[in-house]
Description:
Oligomer: single chain
Number of strands: 3
Radius of gyration: 22 Å
Strand order of the largest sheet: 1-3-2
Number of domains: 1
Largest sheet: 3 strands, antiparallel
CATH superfamily: Winged helix-like DNA-binding domain superfamily/Winged helix DNA-binding domain
Low-confidence stretches: none
Amino acid sequence: MSKSKGPDKEKRSAYIPSILCLLNGLCNYHGKMYVFPAQKRIMSLLLERFNINISKATLNRHLRDTEDKGFIKRVRRIRYDKRLGTIFKSTLYEITLSGYQYLFKCGVNCIKQIKILKNKLKKLFQGPDKKDKYREESTGLETLGSILKQLNGLIAMET
């Protein structure tokens, strides 16, 4: 019989809605789609709002679980100093589209954020705006499908 350290996966995944709600609330408060709170701040807010008292190591484990499930993206922000070397700064947290969809299933009203992310994705994968007269002429590579067709045509020509 093996002993397991800490709560099992089901217990740990029970904290995911709380962490997502907390990050969503911070994003809404600051009017951004990302936040960069300190770990102490996250722990104090979890205790204050959700009555969850956890250590820094446990918080990092829950954040890793949340990131592994694809609900958030974390970006460590570092700075390099000639004298001190690498200096670690705060971590930037961004809730992904699947994270907002999960929050919506949990009953959190986040339709506005879902629409913003869907529009970002749509703009990322669509070609230049036809109404914009200052953009260059279209190269025929506006969509992923047209790019793949072009590449398949080049490969077929070489063989």
